[in-house]
């Protein structure tokens, strides 16, 4: 925990030394998916970025509370205050109850994240489960004088807020810039200004998701849930709020304004934004015909793809770029990542089998590796540099394998720890083996059974040792005794 950690803060536009609100603890909130469709390539980057941050803080000894929400209501089409609710629309088209849509795509999202080895967050709250908290927050903002009622809907008064605070501080805009990008009110609108955004919307008769409130039967505005749920689970002031760059405006800007209007302060010490993934330089979009779901990526079932890419290849590909840099998807880049990952995993697997010589001198390059890798990770999560340090370790392992270098057992241990702690525990990269994770499990189980058999033989319990051999044989596993123990092959 003594290690200094630097994080780029979107709010101050610079790297800052991380100082937690509560010593030894980290509270982080990340905007999760709106669950109305399959998880796609665009979900993988924030999923993996904040997962590595979560894992790193834990590795550094912090107690971390990681909250990542599920948006299941209030996110209207075009991310604006008009149009249909994205989930309700999907429900209407597929003749489902909206919560059936939510359940289906939440499970699919979880499944994709599990394949990518993204750990579940500590809390995963849903917007629809926090209507009471959101109504309470609207009341506070109304009482503070930063919102108004109009025909049963409540809107945030941006101009009024901007008199005292700076609306646009997060995304680097001022009120004038913001005004230029907005359309004029068409007279049908209940808003006083097109800049204002909804805190509560009165539901139209055809709107299927609605709740009672003091103002109308309606639903919360999209930005409100994150202010309400982050405060509920992390407190009025917490450490980190993350999300994709596309959420910075208006979503996070509005969240920051809501926090300030209701609590008198922004409430978030470090705002973090990951950059986007492009496909051959283009934004990914259904209308552009280059939309790739994670499922398609893992199975190769999309005409954009030359082949299937394993979840670990995708994870490795994403970590090869710094989270604040743009990342361009191409088959060539994914294929290069696949090769790099294989080389890395092979070395990580071989490290324990390396020959060592207790008389070999300590290797200064090996001794420096852990410091170099943590320095990179603690410098605003620089995963590409961390991976390049790990590739230095790969090169050393390969030199020992081809006998051009001799190392001592203590240095072998440093390499072992480096791969275990950093490659597996922090970067979350696992050996998928020939048949993914189940291959490792099978190897582990057979190894355990072989140990029991060895024990039986040592006790001259021939009946048990023969029975284990025969039953494994019946399952297609050939076990053979060797000089140093035994080896097995699976048919
Ligand atoms: Zn959010």
Summarize this entry quickly.
The mean pLDDT is 92. Strand 9 (238-244), helix 8 and strand 10 form a beta-alpha-beta unit.
Describe the protein's architecture and organization.
- This protein has 491 residues and is of the alpha/beta class.
- It has three domains: 6-274, 3-Layer(aba) Sandwich (Rossmann fold), CATH 3.40.50.620; 279-433, Four Helix Bundle (Hemerythrin (Met), subunit A) (Up-down Bundle), CATH 1.20.120; 437-490.
- 45% of the residues lie in helices and 14% in strands.
- The protein contains 16 helices and 15 strands.
- Strands 4-3-9-10 form a four-stranded parallel β-sheet, with helices on both faces.
- Strand 3 (25-30), helix 1 (41-59) and strand 4 form a beta-alpha-beta unit.
- It is elongated, with a radius of gyration of 27 Å.
- The chain starts with 5 loop residues before the first strand and ends with a strand.
- The structure holds zinc ion.
- Zinc ion (ZN) binds next to loops.
